[in-house]
Every structure is written in C-alpha cells, then in structure tokens.
C-alpha cells in the first residue's frame, strides 16, 4: 500500500504513506535525527561514504550544501523515513545519481535500532513507485558492496535483477570488495 499524500512540485518529492511508514521531506529541524545514524560507521561505511564527524558538520551540510548538490546533479529531494505515530527520522532513501536515459540510482540508510524490521524494503518500494509513476523513469538501480547483505536483500526482495559485478572495487577502508549493480525496469515493476 502506497498513498501519495501531496502533489509533486518538480523539486520536492511529495509526502508518501505506506502501511507502517511516512516518507517526508527532511528539514533543518531533523538534523539531530539524521546525525544519529549518519555518524555511525556501521551505517555509513557499508553504504560507501564516511560517517559525519560532528553535529555541526551535518547542520552545515544540510543548510548549505544538500539542496545545492541536488540542483547540480538535477535530482529531486529524497525522503526522511518515519514510523507512523512518530516524527523522528529513522532513515533516508534518495535518488543519489542520475544516469542517462531516465535512469536514477537509489541509495538508503537506516538507524541500526530499526534494522531487521522490514522498514527499508517498504520505504524503497514507495520510492520506486514515485520513480515510475511521478517521475516517469525508465529504470532504477541499486549499487552495493557484495558484503552488504542487508542492502542486497532489499534489492532482491523488491525484484531487482543483478546486472553486473564490478570486481575488486576499493572501499573507503581500502579493502578490495565487489560492487554489485542491481536494476529494475519500469515494465518489470508493472508486471509484478
């Protein structure tokens, strides 16, 4: 169940409701919630970026760089994930890269307190629906390290096809890992 609760203005994705979650725009008031998981190595390193060092760094990024980066990459804003009944941001799901020919890459993070509850597949399924119904994309991709089992499970659970393995990719800690590229075409999503 995905209910789109607002109109899409071309920049800010509309608020979305799923069975257990609300996906909404993040605001400066959410910075402490964002920092609570974006500062954790166990969340950030498997996703391929360094943890945020300080709350001030997160505040600075959100106030001064986040929307600028979106504009430079020609991407819509993404979502903060909340559990119904709470306004606390527990994770995020975004389009983090635009590729040619109406193809966006999806990225996501979740606070460890909420791992193993099925929230991320639910949130990403909603983002995929927005991608294909509002943004009229042709395809969405998920990239993750082969060692990131939770991220792999999200892609596989949502019907993505493993399209490529980029061997011996160097992660942020200098380890050699395989990077997996998963893809889901709009027509495959419609046929599910």
From TrEMBL:
GO terms for molecular function: protein-N-terminal-alanine acetyltransferase activity. Gene3D superfamilies: 3.40.630.30. This is N-acetyltransferase. It comes from Streptococcus himalayensis. Pfam families: Acetyltransf_3. It comes from the Bacteria. Keywords: Acyltransferase, Transferase. Belongs to the acetyltransferase family. RimJ subfamily. One of its GO terms (cellular component) is cytoplasm. The keyword Transferase applies. InterPro entries: Acyl_CoA_acyltransferase, GNAT_dom, N-acetyltransferase. Transmembrane segments: none annotated. Residues 21-187 form the N-acetyltransferase domain. The lineage of its organism: Bacteria, Bacillati, Bacillota, Bacilli, Lactobacillales.
């Amino acid at each position: 169940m995905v209910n789109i609760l607002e109109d899409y203005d071309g920049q800010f994705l509309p608020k979305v409701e799923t069975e257990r979650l609300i996906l909404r725009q993040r605001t400066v008031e959410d910075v402490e919630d964002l920092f609570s998981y974006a500062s954790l190595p166990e969340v950030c390193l498997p996703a391929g970026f360094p943890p945020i060092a300080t709350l001030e760094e997160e505040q600075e990024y959100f106030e001064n760089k986040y929307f600028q980066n979106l504009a430079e990459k020609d991407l819509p804003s993404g979502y903060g994930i909340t559990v119904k009944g709470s306004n606390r941001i527990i994770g995020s799901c975004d389009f983090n890269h635009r590729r040619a020919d109406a193809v966006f890459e999806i990225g996501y993070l979740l606070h460890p307190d909420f791992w193993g509850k099925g929230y991320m597949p639910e949130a990403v399924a909603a983002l995929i629906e927005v991608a294909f119904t509002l943004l009229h994309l042709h395809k969405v991709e998920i990239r993750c390290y082969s060692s990131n089992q939770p991220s792999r499970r999200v892609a596989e659970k949502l019907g993505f096809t493993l399209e490529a393995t980029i061997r011996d990719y160097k992660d942020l800690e200098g380890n050699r890992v395989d990077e997996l590229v998963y893809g889901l075409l709009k027509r495959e999503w419609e046929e599910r």
